[in-house]
Amino acid sequence: MSKPKDVVQGTLDLLIMKILALEPMHGWAISQRLKQISGDVLQVSDGSLYPALHKLEQEGWIKAEWAPSENNRRAKYYSLTRAGRRELEKEAANWNRLSTAITQVVNLTEA
Amino acid sequence: MRLTRWLYKLPLRVRSVFQRDRLERELDEELQFHIEHQIQQYVAKGHSPDEARYLALRAFAGIEQRKEECRDARHVSVVEHAIQDLRYAARVLRKSPGFALAVVATLALGIGATTAVFSVVYGVVLQPLPYREPKQLVSTWMIGANAIRFPATSIANYLDWRAENTVFEDIGMIKLVSNFNITGDGEPERVLGGRSTASIFRVLDVQPMLGRVFTDADGQVEDKVVLSYGLWQRRYAGDRQILGKKIQLNGAPYTVLGVMPPEFQYPNREFALWTPLMLNPEEFRAALDYGCIARLKKGVTLAQAQAQMAEIQLRIGKTYPTFQGMRVEITPMLEDMVRTVRTTLYLLLAAVLCLLLIGCVNLANMLVARSMTRSHEFVVRAALGANKGRLMLQSVMEVLPLTALGGAGGLLLTKWMLSILVPLLPSTMPRVEAIRIDWEVLAFAMVVLFATSIVTGIWPAIQVLRWNISETLRESGRTTTFGSSTSRLRNGLIVSQIAAVVILMVVSALLIRSFVALQNVDPGFRSNNILSVHLAVSRSKYRSDAEVTRLIQRILERVSAIPGIVSVGMVNRLPLAGGNQNGTLEFEGTTLPRTPQGILQTGNFDWRTATPDYFRTLGIPLIQGRVFEESDTADRPLVGLIDDRVARLAWPQQNPIGKRFRMGFPEAPWVEVVGVVGHVRHAGLDVDPRPQVYWPHSQRVQDRLALAVRGNQNPKQLTATVISAIHDVDPEQPVYDVRPMDEVVERSLSQQWLTMALVSLFASVALVLATVGVYGVLSYSVGLRRREIGIRIALGSSRREVIWTVLRHGGSLAAVGMIIGIAGALFLSRMLTTLVYGITTSDALSFISASLVLLLVALAASYIPARRAASVDPMSVLRTD
């Protein structure tokens, strides 16, 4: 296999929203946090992060603001909107249901 | 939920479209920020700066693609591309203003003319009547045993209908012609008024603008009047104090009850006031002088109403023998109003649509030719990966600014054309005031514009789909020809264009020939040097017949005393002036078929009352016997005149002098025929439904008269002196419809003239367009075949042969188009039967002349490209390619 596989599209959205639920962040920080929390299991290329961010912004789940960053440069900060928060809850619940189901199925075949 | 989400998302989309540049900058900045941090991180891990930059960029896996994905996330690429294409199109068009101007002008003219004609058709024929539930409104016709149709009924009939029917909410009745002379305040003036039942207002369901209308409770006393908005504004300066005041009508006082709103124009726009109609149930049942309208009850169909009314009329016929065999017919009121003009207007609309189609073919050809010269650019782009959808979008977008400009120009032209066209419409055309550019007309213009853009813009776009990229690229450097399918398409377009032009030209030729035939029709009188003046005598002022006779006598004397007057006469209805008075007659000792009641079955005759000099004034020839004389006074034996047609009809092979005739009802007095005069075309030059009989005015007094004055100079110059002579006799006597007799004849042809002029105009424009079309297609094909022609010439083909080849191409296109066009014209012209006169709709001369003109023009248009082909220099052609 040549390139590390990107995470499934919907999953990446969920991860981004979950991260932004804690605090507003710019794209670089989000990418760092993604690496940090998921380690090598989920490979998110920098390339796929930004289109996902822009898509979420157009959907209205997150919104973006320009603000000074730690080193006083202008950076685009993303934060979760109210609609985004609701969407996150819904998607998180979906995910839990789905993953539980899949886990059960996987365990079943092993038994 | 969904809606609020959209409310949130919409501004984002809008921002994406309009702040494209800023968003692009921000995207760059955002990614730059990320990459710089990434580089710092790699440097901190011990990479060299160059290495760090390389790794950071690689982590993005193609930064430009990622940017495109981000843009796609905005979902606006289609809109954005469209805008890009529009900008590009505007740039390209600025570089070829001649092409842009040609397209915009053709579109604007086509849409302008079509919309203008449609405004007229819509305003007059299609637009619903301005009353509540106009579809429920109907009018009644009486149809005689001899199949003659009367748009009228009588009082006794009306009363019976009203009492017996269960299908109408109400029936209203109005006297068809009532003249009112307004005097007392300002100039004396004659207006047309409606003596009507109060139910008229209920049937139409209209409210007065001021005051009230008369009701049944006001009784049948004729002393109240409701004014039209026009009269109120014109004569009384919109004075609200007029309510309750008395005005002098025909010398008697009438109280003004109210004023109607401007849109109330029943029975037509000429009616200036309405007074209560006195319903005398004893009035002769066969006096069909009253127009009737009714409102169908909810849920009652026209057929049901027709059935019940037929039943009622059958019963009336049984009780009153005069009415035996007479039928009643119910027609929708709107249809009734527009019956006479509908065919003409539809013809004009069809003609202008035909013209639009012809223009569209030229547009399509221009656009296709243009897209071909640019085909190389398109094909290269396709080869580089542009998808076909995107290229089609571009083709369409390049046409869009042109159609938008053309549409806007078309609407401006519509306004201008209407300002010219509407005053030219014949005075008899109903609802002219309803013609305007309203929403329906705008919607029509939009549909036409849309259809035009699709029809013309689709061809270049279709070309895109047909391209074979590799083949086209191999023809490197030259314009693409796209093989034979495209030239077939172009030839097909030209053939259909020529067919449409042939149809238009044939119709135009038919109408011109009819009009010439009409102008050569002998009306039975000489119209030159005659001034005609109408007047209506106020019977409340001149009560007895003797008084009216004396008034007329004095006016005739006074006018004939004017220097330069040759002769003066009066008649109750002037020929070709629109008015008429007709009815049945009975002839003594005739062998004509009769109804059991003794009524002549073929009998519908013009009833004329005239003064002795009328015949000399109009130049109506005396064929036998004598005309009326001053001595034919009321107390002398009753006399009459017949025209030569009556003489042949009633007493064939007999001497009519001394025979007797009378009006077709039992109480009418017999009169003795003293002379036979020439027949006059009264109803129109194209129709001649009735022969005439005359009574002397002194023995059958009429209060509505036309004065005919023959002078030895231009009759217009007599106007002032004649009117002042009448006012010398009675200063309060108004006159109306004052015009030279030549003008009366002209006006009677105005509808035919307008149709002929417009269709001929359309046909001429169409011919020019087709010339341009043929020329364009042949020039183009010669341009494409330069190489082939050069080789032919090099191989020994003579220039004459080359010219002949091109001419044959043009000629064969024209011939095929002509054959299709002639077949189409033969089929379509059958619908024109009512519009042509003196020729058949398959008139050979019209068909041949139209085809010949077209063939000659097509060959002439082919000749220039042919010459150009012949002048191809084989050496230069063979070197360049």
Can you summarize this structure?
The complex is a heterodimer of chains A (111) and B (881). With 111 residues, chain A is an alpha+beta fold. Chain A is 62% helix and 14% strand.
- Number of E strands of chain B: 24
Structural class, judged by helices and strands of chain A?
alpha+beta
* Structure annotation, total helices of chain B: 26
Q: Termini distance of chain A?
A: 31 Å
H/E topology pattern of chain A: HEHHEEH
| Distance from first to last alpha carbon of chain B | 67 Å
Mean pLDDT of chain B: 85
Residues in helix, % of chain A: 55-70%
What is the helical fraction of chain B, as a range of percent?
40-55%
- Tell me the total number of β-strands of chain A: 3
Strand content of chain B: 5-15%
Strand line-up of the largest beta sheet of chain A: 1-3-2
Nearest-integer average pLDDT of chain A = 80
Give structural notes.
- The complex is a heterodimer of chains A (111) and B (881).
- Chain A is of the alpha+beta class and 111 residues long.
- Chain A has one domain (9-110): Arc Repressor Mutant, subunit A (Orthogonal Bundle).
- Helices cover 62% and strands 14% of the residues of chain A.
- In chain A, helix 1 (9-22) crosses helix 3 and helix 1 packs across helix 4 (82-110).
- The two termini of chain B are 67 Å apart.
- In chain B, a hairpin with a 7-residue loop joins strand 20 (660-663) and strand 21.
- Chain B has 4 domains: 2-75, no CATH class; 145-325, no CATH class; 342-519 and 750-880, no CATH class; 538-732, no CATH class.
- In chain B, the strands form 4 sheets. In chain B, strands 15, 16, 17, 18, 19, 20, 21 and 22 form an 8-stranded mixed beta sheet that branches. A 6-stranded mixed β-barrel of chain B has the order 4-5-10-7-9-8. In chain B, strands 1, 2, 3, 11 and 12 form a 5-stranded antiparallel beta sheet that branches.
- Chain B is elongated.
- Chain B has 881 residues and is α+β, with helices and mostly antiparallel strands.
- Helices cover 53% and strands 15% of the residues of chain B.
- In chain B, helix 11 runs antiparallel to helix 16 (483-519) and helix 16 (483-519) packs across helix 25.
- Residues 476-482 of chain B have low confidence and may be disordered.
- The interface between A and B is medium-sized, with 24 and 27 residues.
